[in-house]
Amino acid sequence: MVLNQLKGRLKTARRGHKLLKDKRDELMRQFLDNVRLNKQLRAKVEQGLTEAFGSLSVASAIMSPEMLEQSLLYPRQSVELGMTYQNIMSVNVPVYDFQTRNSDPSEIFPYGFAQTSGELDDALEKLAEVFKDMLELAQVEKTTQMLAQEIEKTRRRVNALEYVMIPELEQNIRY
């Protein structure tokens, strides 16, 4: 009777081991895809921010600091951020969605055009363009982090089954 229980546990452990190995392999594939996407997005965001800060530094050189501060003091555009979850191999990862209050592209300028320079307009346009990519980068980085944690947990479970539990059960069945 005990022998049949041990054989049943061994069969279940082997099936669980196979399923966990498959899960680990799929998590690794998803993780590597996210790492590639993260690398591309990071390069795109860094380039966009470099261009935006370059335009902003030119604008700050042309305009007085008081005028620049006054121009950017009150935002006209508000952004709403929503978050939902997506399940990837039993890992709930965040999915961010943002929407602006007004879809008019001229609404990103919180100032009149008479007393400001065109370089400030360029800087704000570039920052508005890179904002969505920054949000997507945050989402991908968080997903990558959560997948890495789940891979580590799954790897430990696979190893515990493979090197501890299954050999113990096989040894107990032999006796």
Automatic annotation (TrEMBL):
Coiled coil start-end: 3-30
Keywords assigned: Coiled coil, Ion transport, Transport
GO molecular function terms listed in the Swiss-Prot or TrEMBL record: proton-transporting ATPase activity, rotational mechanism
InterPro entries xref list: V_ATPase_D
Similarity comment: Belongs to the V-ATPase D subunit family.
Protein name as annotated: V-type ATPase, D subunit
